[in-house]
Amino acid sequence: MARLEYQSVDSEIADRIRERRGGQLTPLDQMLLHSPPIADGWNSLLGAIRTRAGLPADIRELAILRVAALNGADYEWNAHEPVAHRAGLTPEQTEGLRVDVVDPAATLTAPQRAALAYTDAMTRSVEVPDDVFKALHEHFDDRHIVELTATIGTYNLVSRFLVALHVGRPDEATEPDTLDENGAVA
């Protein structure tokens, strides 16, 4: 059960969130609406990362799933796994992103492996070793590196918010999620 009550709010901010989401608020949105300014900023940031950035969708979703796996954010994983498949990751590749997999990079392409190593470094220890960054730079231009970095950082925020406040845990009944234009709830 969530640690705070979900908010069902009618406001301009909630309407902007609903617009990005395709009509309804998710449990994540309903938790964020405890602080309308945070909910509004969150909506803008996630909208930019999900719909206005040029990072290849498979790389974006790989990073999101890996962050969810590393941080134990099942709600986020469940929301993004189908999006990752639509973005071109195979079920074998997404399963390889789970933390209990011995060699998560075994089924990935070279750019995906570089993004995975970068995601792991940023999420596990924050500091990125030079060799990891150099390998990343072999596959991505500066804009994509900035967008990947922002995606990893943002989804660490998302996953830690979800886990800390028990948002969307399987032991609670919630309204069915409405997916955004990319088919994910966050």
Automatic annotation (TrEMBL):
InterPro entries: AhpD-like, CMD-like. Pfam families: CMD (PF02627). This is Carboxymuconolactone decarboxylase family protein. It comes from Saccharopolyspora erythraea (Streptomyces erythraeus). The lineage of its organism: Bacteria, Bacillati, Actinomycetota, Actinomycetes, Pseudonocardiales. It comes from the Bacteria. Residues 36-107 form the Carboxymuconolactone decarboxylase-like domain.
